[in-house]
Amino acid sequence: QVQLVESGGGLVQPGGSLRLSCAASGRFFSIYGMGWYRQAPGKQRELVATFTNGGSTNYGDSVKGRFTISGDNAKNTVYLQMNSLIPEDTAVYYCNAHISKVADFPRGRDYWGQGTQVTVSS
């Protein structure tokens, strides 16, 4: 069973920083990419940033220049460094990973974490 365990959310003042982590565990064959999405109350889930196992990154327009995604392939972990946080960044942040097991190689499927709350408020 594949699990994504997130950590690092919390309350921060505007202009502050937070670092989220997400570690994949369980029995799987390959991780193709990992990333973060977020969902604010009353809004649809949106892309924050993604990181492929080849090192390519992609960011949502609203976080470009403020957030940085990185990965540690050896630890099956992805990080999201969030700087210059604004109240509009308040949301539940979900870790996502596209993973294949031996049984569904090479297609694989998406897995989601349980979410971690990030609140930006003074």
Provide structural commentary.
It is built from no helices and 11 strands. The chain has strands at residues 3-7, 10-12, 18-25, 30-39, 46-52, 57-59, 67-72, 77-82, 91-100, 109-112, 116-120. Strands 2, 4, 5, 6, 9, 10 and 11 form a 7-stranded mixed sheet that branches. The model has no long low-confidence stretch (mean pLDDT 95).
Rounded radius of gyration (Å): 14 Å
Mean residue pLDDT: 95
Low-confidence stretches: none
Q: What is the ordering of alpha helices and beta strands?
A: EEEEEEEEEEE
Structural class: mainly beta
Number of strands: 11
| Ends apart, CA distance between termini | 40 Å
**Helix proportion range:** under 10%
Largest sheet: 7 strands, mixed
Question: If helices are DSSP runs of H or I spanning 4 or more residues, what is the number of helices?
Answer: 0
How much β-strand is present in the residues? over 45%
Structural shape: elongated
Record the SSE blueprint:
Blueprint: E1 3-7, E2 10-12, E3 18-25, E4 30-39, E5 46-52, E6 57-59, E7 67-72, E8 77-82, E9 91-100, E10 109-112, E11 116-120
Parallel strand pairs: 2-11
Antiparallel strand pairs: 1-3, 3-8, 4-5, 4-9, 5-6, 7-8, 9-10, 9-11
